[in-house]
Design goal:
The protein is mainly α. Helices cover 89% and strands 0% of the residues. The longest helix has 49 residues.
Length: 94
């Protein structure tokens, strides 16, 4: 009976630490993406104010970078969902 209880405690600990890690991955990823897009948008506006003739070129590059920043965040979300749904760490407990 003690081995069963110890195994249940180990599973609960792995799930608890996984939940904390998922929150950190998603939260910090979202924070980084928001800060990155905010800084990029402010620099775009500064550049557009200085040289209005370059706005079409800069706008295309800005949207490309915004997509890449969001893609990096979504990769983090996908990794977090993988650990939330099919946690490979639980199979190592035996």
């Amino acid at each position: 009976m003690d081995q069963v209880a110890a195994h249940i405690v180990q599973i609960a600990q792995v799930q608890g630490f996984t939940a904390i890690a998922l929150g950190l991955i998603i939260g910090l990823g979202a924070l980084g993406a928001c800060i990155g897009i905010g800084v990029m948008g402010s620099k775009f506006l500064e550049a557009a104010a200085r040289q209005p003739e370059l706005v079409p070129l800069l706008q295309g590059r800005m949207f490309l970078l915004a997509g890449l920043i969001d893609a990096a965040f979504l990769i983090g979300v996908a990794l977090a969902m993988y650990f939330a749904i099919a946690n490979p760490l639980l199979s190592k407990l035996g």
